[in-house]
Specification:
Length: 107
């Protein structure tokens, strides 16, 4: 009796589309593939609140969060990976000649 609901981004806003609905008073677990800052998961939690449901937790396959994590609750993950990131003006010399690509779904 477990339902899977997908939130999708349209015009930079996370929405329930394709007739997905979160039943009122239901328990909802947010599951992500990768959590870095938690911004998308927080947006999902807002959808849960807007639908009068209860957030029971966060889960992901890969947790690559750092001190920039917005989620204050526990995240259950399959693996935690520390990946160092740099601002453009703080790149180490060995990385300066590599063309960068901005990853993620917020491009």
């Amino acid at each position: 009796n477990t339902e899977t609901i997908i939130a999708e981004r349209k015009d930079k806003k996370l929405l329930l589309r394709r007739d997905f609905k979160i039943p009122s008073y239901s328990n909802v677990l947010i599951v992500e593939d990768v959590i870095t800052t938690g911004k998308s998961a927080i947006e999902c939690s807002d959808l849960i609140k807007d639908n009068n449901a209860k957030l029971v937790g966060y889960a992901c396959i890969i947790d690559r969060s750092s001190n920039k994590l917005l989620i204050k609750d526990t995240i259950v993950s399959q693996i935690k990976i520390e990946i160092e990131t740099f601002s453009e003006n703080e790149l180490p010399e060995d990385l300066k000649n590599i063309k960068f690509t901005k990853p993620g779904s917020r491009i």
